[in-house]
Amino acid sequence: MKPETKTIDIILRSMRTEYLAPSHVLLRPHHESRTYIRRALHAINQYIGGDQIFQHKGAKEQEARAGSAVLIRAGILYRSMNPDVGKTRRRGISFRFAIMGGQDPLVLLETPFVMDRKIGDFIGELNRELFAAEAQENFLLSATLRAGIGMRLLEKIILLSTLKADALARLEHYNRLQTVFEYIHQNFQEQIPVDKLAELAGLSVSRFFKVFQEASGISPNQYVLNFRLSRAQELLIGDACIHKIASLTGFGDQFYFSRIFKNKLGLSPSLFRARNRREH
Hints:
Helix 2 packs antiparallel against helix 3 (139-160), helix 4 crosses helix 7 and helix 6 packs across helix 7. This protein has 2 domains: 3-163, Jelly Rolls, CATH 2.60.120; 177-275, Homeodomain-like (Arc Repressor Mutant, subunit A, Orthogonal Bundle), CATH 1.10.10.60. The chain is built from 11 helices and 10 strands. It has 280 residues and is an alpha+beta fold. Helices cover 48% and strands 18% of the residues. It starts with a helix and ends in a 5-residue tail after the last helix. It has helices spanning 3-14, 117-134, 139-160, 167-176, 178-187, 194-201, 205-216, 220-236, 242-248, 254-265, 269-275, and strands spanning 16-26, 42-48, 52-56, 62-64, 69-72, 78-81, 89-98, 109-110, 114-115, 162-163.
């Protein structure tokens, strides 16, 4: 089996959907990001009724024509400009997939930023299906429908992407650290000492840092922080108060949480909530 085929096979067989939520909002002036911001969750959106300008930090501006799709990857600095404030709607999906203990499969892929109208319409259809799945009273049916939507979304992203050169090597590291990632995802609300993670991996602390960095591209502490921030974004889309969210995501203090959120993502929790209020 070719390395590329083996890698994609592992991604699809081990994939689980950790978060999948539809959004449909009218873009208002506060949706313009004159400064660069980050997301802790991935989002893929279709923009209807007007054009958008997007830019990754250090890269050229890209125009998203009305109806096209934009994939905003977690952790990437970007900004957007909306020439048609007040008439443009955004519909799309916020998501996080996990493979082999909790790693993000998108770190293995080179993905496009702006995509054409055909992909935009596909995302719009998935958005409608996801709203319908969430409205199902039968939990098992809802979960089954959501799982299918998640798989179709990931398959589409893979078809539009190319594998990074180190993808297979990273998967080997993921496999070695699978228990570590599972432990972080189950205990992120608590303090997580690095020596505990190294013990789970059966490695010295210094060796563990190196292997973890090779697997995820970031340090263990940064990984834990990013995971907490992604959980916080999920909760901010709902109705829980910010004080409660700080407690549920391991930050404890609301003011500390708000400071870290704004420092890492470029906007406050309350502004993130305002920008992501759903309109059905």
